[in-house]
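Give me the fold.
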Amino acid sequence: MSTFELSASLRSNIGTGASRRLRRLENRVPGILYGAGQPPQLLSFDHNQLLRALEEEAFCSHILTIYVDGQAQRAVLKDLQRHPYKPRIVHLDLLRITAKDKITMSVPLHFTGEDIAPGVKDSGGMLARLLSSVDIRCLPDILPEYLEVDVSHLGLDESLHLSQIPLPEGIEFIALIHEDDRPVVNIHMPRTAEEEKSLLPESAVVPAINVKEEVSENKIVNEKDGK
């Protein structure tokens, strides 16, 4: 199992301006650590260290060790904000955990057996992954990095639901707690181009030249009306 450690520094300045200076001048990421009945701590993290850690999928669904002034605290990542177009981390929220309190986390799904599934191998079907991750609830010490979904037995036009995925003891799906047994994956025949076209709404198959003409006409009307 992967282990992740991050070093953090306490920060006292708050506000948008202070966060911008922190990112621009010091190459650090503002964050907050809260929960477990303790006061929240305003922290900052080295951007490059954080970026390297995020290259691993398990980082987002794993117990993290956060060192603040040399003191270790266990936490999980609850929220991460990225810059809309730059490869920059803007902010992160971390939740402290205790060994006795259950946590809710989103963990990725890893699909196995696609190449030997009868619906794919024998019938020429296509595997459709309807979920890439799922929310679970468990104690921190048994939090899995991912859940494996075996599709090797699926035939054509068959699907697999959450209730059909075996879970280790002590782990439960949040959706099933709320009686939402949603499908996770299915196998179906690929649609032809004509079938795809027939499924489009009528407005979606209007020739592009007509769409442009309608836009131009609307623009002219609006200009005449002074809009």
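The longest helix spans residues 208-224.
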